[in-house]
Amino acid sequence: MATIDKYFPGLDGVIASETAISFLDVEREKIIIKGNDLIDLSKDKEYIDIVNLLLEGSLPSTIDKVKLEEKLSSNYDVPSELFNILQLLPKQTHPMDGLRTGISVLSGYDENIDNRSLNKERAYQLLGQLPTITVNSYRIINEQQPVYPQKDLSYSANFLYMITGENPTELEAKIFDRSLLLYSEHEMPNSTFTARVIASTQSDIYGALTGAVASLKGNLHGGANEAVMYMLNEAKTVEEFEDILREKLLKKEKIMGFGHRVYMKKMDPRALMMKESLKQLCDKKGDYMLLEMCEAGEKIMVQEKGLYPNLDYYAAPVYWMLGIPIPLYTPIFFSARTVGLCAHVIEQHENNRLFRPRVNYIGEQYV
To answer: Among 59, 138, 181, 295, who pairs with 95 as Cys (CB 3.0-4.6 Å)?
Structure first.
């Protein structure tokens, strides 16, 4: 019986695409986005800088940023019927499923859905609409009235305002913006691969993003940030959190927020940036408990398992201190990643080849 030459579980190490969008240079600890290091960008740039970089290929000028903010805010509104559809969802629906539904609904309002040349404009439209859908899918599922955007705020400040109902401070808006920037693009994780596989059939961008939502929901991917916060909330002291981790290790349970398929022997550099942001929030509020718990957990996991924190481990307590409900953590991750996903869909359509891998058959033999 004929077999394929070699099997790589989980496609580990397999090169699936050529891309000019991003690359994880693990040895040099750099995340390359269109020739720029994402970590360096996170120190003095904003999320909309990355939006321009990913969709237009360059960092924007001051005038470009003003125009981009206006472009995004002009797309904040969504069809009113979308809220009516979200009202029909069962109340136990996860906000990620509400978000997935909302994106699917948008496709029906696109009269030129099969015209792939319009995908860049769709990307800007989706980026404008995603915060509105993200927040209101959660609110409607929880029997709250929809909240509407404040177009006089910046993109990130408006997003945080819609979540908390309060205008954020300058520090809060800056830290939330940094989190969006760090989540914006990360080469070829499962959700991006899912989007590209769907796009390779010449399906539309809404379908590709809908599939990516389903992928990102899993706790081995985007859902890890929620799991981290639930774990932290089980403890009231550093010692209690250490005990929880050690008990999980004894039971050989998977501990979310640690380890990464690419960052095997080093800490996710994005996690370092969120750790700094967590300290800034602790300094401002005079409460260091979450930081101390996280640092203690980090030390245990490095010593016991040789595992380092990923972005989700420190993003979770940052979101908690910003007043963000836990079920919104992963939808926010997806909203931030939308720009990267759209860039990948556009690139896939520009130089397309249908994904069609083979298998090694291990079933019943035949004659």
So the answer is: 138
- Asked if residue 41 lies in contact with residue 33, where contact means CB atoms within 8 angstroms, the answer is yes
5 is catalytic: no
Give 105-138 pLDDT, tens digit per residue.
999 999 999 999 999 999 999 999 999 999 999 9
Q: For residue range 278-320, what is the model confidence (pLDDT) as tens digits?
A: 999 999 999 999 999 999 999 999 999 999 999 999 999 999 9
Which class in CATH covers the domain with range 224-321?
Answer: mainly alpha
pLDDT digits (tens, 9 = 90+) for 36-92: 999 999 999 999 999 999 999 999 999 999 999 999 999 999 999 999 999 999 999
State the CATH architecture for 30-215+334-350.
Orthogonal Bundle (1.10)
Check 260, 268, 344, 349 and give the catalytic one: 260
pLDDT score for 357: 87
Q: What is the DSSP track for 203-245?
A: --HHHHHHHHHHHHHSTTTTTHHHHHHHHHTT-SSHHHHHHHH
Task: Identify whether the C-beta of residue 112 lies closer than 8 Å to the C-beta of residue 219.
Answer: no
Of 152, 177, 162, 185, the closest CA to residue 38 belongs to 185
Delimiting residues of CATH 1.10.230.10 domain(s) in the chain: 224-321
Active site residue 349: no
Cβ atoms of residues 51 and 127 within 8 Å: yes
pTM above 0.85, yes or no: yes
Alpha helices in the chain (DSSP H): 38-44, 47-56, 62-73, 80-87, 95-107, 119-141, 155-164, 170-183, 190-199, 205-217, 224-232, 238-250, 269-285, 289-305, 311-321, 329-350
Residue 34 near residue 19 (C-beta atoms within 8 A): no
Q: Say whether 221 is catalytic.
A: yes
Q: In what helix (H) or strand (E) does residue 25 lie, and over which residues does it extend?
A: strand 22-25
